[in-house]
Write a structure and sequence with these properties.
There is one protein chain. By secondary structure, this protein is α+β, with helices and mostly antiparallel strands. It has five helices and 17 strands. A hairpin with a 2-residue loop joins strand 12 and strand 13. The chain starts with a helix and ends with a strand. The relative contact order is 0.18.
Length: 281
């Protein structure tokens, strides 16, 4: 059953640049919807019954909600920073819980084993101590002081470096990653994961990036990020249980899982339970 708390959230449902008047049929939390442009070129989202849903266009995507969001979409200040390149990576469909997709994005321990010779490599497998907190003032999960050796931290990186990360979860199915920017060490590259829940065990994942990179072609930037996520997809689609367990006794965390533990606790606190498994079966 869909928890009302998640019904009232904003979700990505398409790339604004690819909209047309004919519309694109998709779904949101089991509800068939159509995303299209109206006569003025503005985005319009309707249900199969003809109900018009609220719409926002931000970060290159169309966002909507089946409910009544209390607030606007979370802010990513870097999206308004001059000089950045904004990369609409596209969409990847994954047969997993939308919450599982976000949790996987927060995990760094798998880098050497899943993204070998790109985001990690043996013997550099140790996850160093880092800080995790639920920031009460903004009601978000944050992980900071995360460091990991990476053979190729980004498409623009020319060699292996120790990359610093910050992870932020501003919404139940969205995560924002800030990481070392090789061309500009004083700045952060921004890589996001926007997840559209199609069903409790099926989702569309829309990565988006805001980078300082004046040399790499847009095609290569997109292919690099798609390669990373397609490596994740095979892992995600084979996780058991398929839904994200929120009962602390269902899976045993390690020190590397501190962000996951905080994320699950935050979900449970707010009744963000669509795509979650609450008790052992």
């Amino acid at each position: 059953m869909t928890a009302q708390a998640m019904v009232d959230e904003w979700y990505p449902v398409g790339l604004f640049s690819r909209l047309d008047k004919a519309g694109q049929d998709t779904a949101l939390m089991g509800e068939p919807i159509t995303v299209a442009c109206n006569e003025n070129g503005d985005a319009r989202v309707t249900t199969a019954s003809g109900r018009v849903l609220p719409v926002l266009v931000r970060y290159g995507h169309v966002w909507t909600s089946l409910g009544q969001p209390r607030d606007g979409l979370f802010a990513i200040p870097e999206a308004d920073q001059p000089g950045r390149r904004f990369v609409d990576v596209g969409v990847v469909r994954v047969r997993c819980s939308p919450l599982r997709a976000v949790e996987n994005f927060l995990d760094i321990a798998h880098f050497p084993f899943v993204h070998t010779d790109i985001l990690g490599a043996e013997p550099h497998t140790e996850v160093q101590n880092y800080r995790v907190e639920i920031r009460e003032d903004v009601d978000e999960v944050w992980a900071t002081q995360v460091k990991f050796y990476q053979p190729q931290a980004s498409k623009s990186a020319s060699g292996g470096i120790t990359t610093e990360y910050m992870y932020r979860v501003p919404a139940p199915t969205c995560s924002v990653l800030y990481k070392t920017c090789p061309p500009r060490p004083s700045e952060w590259d921004v890589i996001t994961l926007f997840v559209q829940p199609l069903a409790e065990d099926l989702c569309d994942v829309w990565p988006w990036m805001a980078l300082f990179d004046d040399t790499t072609s847009m095609t290569d930037l997109i292919h690099f990020q798609q390669t990373i996520f397609l490596q994740d997809r095979s892992i995600l689609e084979n996780q058991i249980p398929r839904l994200l367990p929120l009962d602390p006794g269902m899976e045993i965390p390690t020190r590397a899982d501190l962000t996951s533990v905080a994320y699950r606790r935050w979900l449970k606190r707010h009744n963000y339970t669509y795509g979650a498994q609450l008790v052992a079966q």
